[in-house]
């Protein structure tokens, strides 16, 4: 990773340019505080500023987070280089931010990322100046600070929800790092007793929220998801925790409101929201790379997946049928196999069927729902592979290997595998080149011609696909899945 240019960083700081939000943080030696470049406080003198690529780097140097601009709300760091080293650092930081080291050991995380534990440590230290454990600890503390500021959860519950093994350890680290106790911080915030949690998630501008919602609204799992008045709602199951959430957009953040029942699964839930709405993407360098293709819709994202298995099943159900027909099949699938749940929304009635539940279903039951036998076989085989741990449909790991695993399953060809990689695996270079919509938008017919034409868009071909699909003026029968 290239070192930060202090002069360029200071110029961005002086202009409070939102395009640099999350790209670097500034430590102010005269105050001992570190801020985002968009902080509304008076710009410090240049000689008092030190610039860091990550919040953890600033905290390692002894700076405390600013209470005005709140570094925990900054968009995820985007590493501009696409070489293997920088990509690994980005993926590792993203997984650590999502709470991976609260659930896994360093060895397990390294194995997930396809490298040795020693190499993972070396890459993270080189990119961010701190160890993976220190990076995780910073994320734990920033999440705890967010919960202390924005919720009325008991401090004991916050300690465990933010990834600490004990309240004593939480209090010690919090006071050591921030020079105040959790109670001191909470005493200075105004909170009301409510039955929900509301958390803000930052993103890089611009952000095409309406276009993203339009894409999701045509592909909702009826009973599990709904798009209502520019708001996305869905039911949630993370391990033993179940509940619901809704997401609305402001100019600078997504406001995520969750049921209290998801408090202890907050990091994992927010990580899935970030993936679903592609919040770590930096649209400006992507748009520059795509050129004229991206001009008509600045900030267009690639919709991710809240659950990889859920999206993969939806892709299989949509093979060679209209979006409307696929939605009908999906609604039957949810009603038959999804667990009922009570929510404040009449449109949300079921949890998404898990791979374990589907794997126990007979082919006859799926066929009875109107699903073709070949697709029923594909869904059952996929469910068995996921439930047995032979196939991981979450981002990370070896993408070519996962694509090969997918295509080795019956009923999953090149198009379906690439679509799953594009959404469930969050692979920015996924490219379903056999898609009818892609062919129509490009005016090309042969796979070779399409792949040759798309070489110019690497490594952002998934974003190119979204722009191609959006360019189509089509009816329901022609809409891409």
Task: Break the fold down into its secondary structure elements and pairings.
Layout: H1 6-15, E1 25-28, E2 33-35, E3 49-52, H2 55-60, E4 64-65, H3 84-97, H4 100-103, H5 106-113, H6 117-128, H7 132-150, H8 155-161, H9 167-178, H10 182-187, E5 196-202, H11 209-217, E6 225-228, E7 231-238, E8 241-249, E9 253-259, H12 266-276, H13 283-290, H14 308-317, H15 323-337, H16 355-359, H17 363-367, H18 373-387, H19 399-407, H20 414-423, H21 436-442, H22 447-454, H23 461-470
Parallel strand pairs: 2-4
Antiparallel strand pairs: 1-2, 1-3, 5-9, 6-7, 7-8, 8-9
Helix pairs in contact: 3-6, 3-7, 14-18, 14-20, 19-20
What does the model show?
The protein has 481 residues and is of the alpha+beta class. The protein has 23 helices and nine strands. Strands 5-9-8-7-6 form a five-stranded antiparallel β-sheet. The protein has a four-stranded mixed β-sheet with strand order 3-1-2-4. α14 packs antiparallel against α18, α14 runs antiparallel to α20 and α19 crosses α20.
């Amino acid at each position: 990773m290239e070192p930060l240019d202090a002069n360029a960083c200071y110029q961005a700081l002086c202009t409070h340019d939102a395009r640099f939000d999350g790209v670097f943080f500034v430590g102010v030696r005269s105050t001992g505080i570190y801020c985002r470049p968009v902080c509304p406080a008076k710009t410090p003198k240049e000689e008092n500023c030190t610039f860091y690529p990550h919040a953890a780097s600033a905290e390692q140097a002894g700076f405390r987070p600013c209470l005005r601009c709140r570094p925990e709300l900054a968009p995820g760091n985007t590493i501009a280089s696409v070489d293997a080293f920088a990509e690994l650092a980005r993926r590792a930081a993203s997984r650590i931010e999502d709470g991976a080291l609260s659930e896994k050991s360093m060895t397990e995380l390294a194995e997930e990322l396809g490298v040795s534990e020693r190499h993972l440590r070396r890459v993270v230290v080189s990119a961010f100046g701190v160890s993976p454990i220190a990076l995780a600890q910073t994320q734990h503390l920033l999440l705890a600070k967010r919960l202390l500021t924005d919720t009325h959860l008991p401090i004991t519950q916050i300690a465990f929800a933010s990834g600490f093994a004990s309240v004593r350890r939480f209090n010690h680290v919090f006071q050591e790092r921030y020079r105040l106790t959790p109670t001191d911080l909470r005493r200075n915030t105004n909170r009301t007793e409510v039955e929900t949690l509301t958390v803000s998630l930052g993103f890089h501008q611009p952000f095409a929220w309406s276009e993203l919602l339009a894409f999701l609204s045509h592909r909702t799992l009826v009973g599990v998801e709904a798009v209502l008045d520019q708001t996305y709602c869905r039911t949630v199951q993370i391990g033993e925790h179940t509940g619901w959430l809704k997401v609305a957009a402001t100019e600078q953040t997504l406001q995520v409101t969750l049921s209290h029942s998801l408090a202890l699964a907050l990091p994992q839930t927010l990580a899935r929201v970030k993936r679903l709405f592609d919040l770590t993407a930096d649209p400006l360098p992507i748009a520059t790379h795509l050129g004229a293709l991206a001009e008509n819709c600045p900030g267009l994202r690639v919709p991710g997946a809240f659950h990889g298995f859920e999206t993969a099943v939806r892709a299989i159900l949509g093979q060679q049928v209209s979006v409307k027909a696929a939605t009908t099949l999906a609604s039957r699938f949810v009603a038959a196999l999804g667990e009922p749940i009570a929510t404040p929304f009449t449109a949300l009635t079921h949890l998404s069927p898990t791979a374990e539940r589907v794997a126990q279903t007979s082919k006859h039951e799926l066929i009875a729902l109107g699903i073709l036998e070949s697709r029923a076989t594909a869904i059952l085989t996929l469910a068995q592979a996921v439930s047995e741990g032979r196939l991981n449909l979450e981002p990370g790991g070896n993408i070519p290997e996962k694509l090969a695993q997918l295509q080795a399953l019956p009923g999953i060809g090149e198009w379906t595998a690439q679509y799953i990689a594009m959404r469930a695996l969050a692979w920015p270079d996924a490219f379903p080149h056999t898609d009818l919509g892609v062919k129509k938008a490009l005016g090309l017919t042969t796979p070779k011609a399409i792949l040759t034409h798309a070489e110019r868009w690497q490594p952002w071909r998934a974003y190119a696909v979204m722009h191609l699909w959006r360019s189509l003026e089509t009816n329901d029968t022609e809409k891409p899945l």
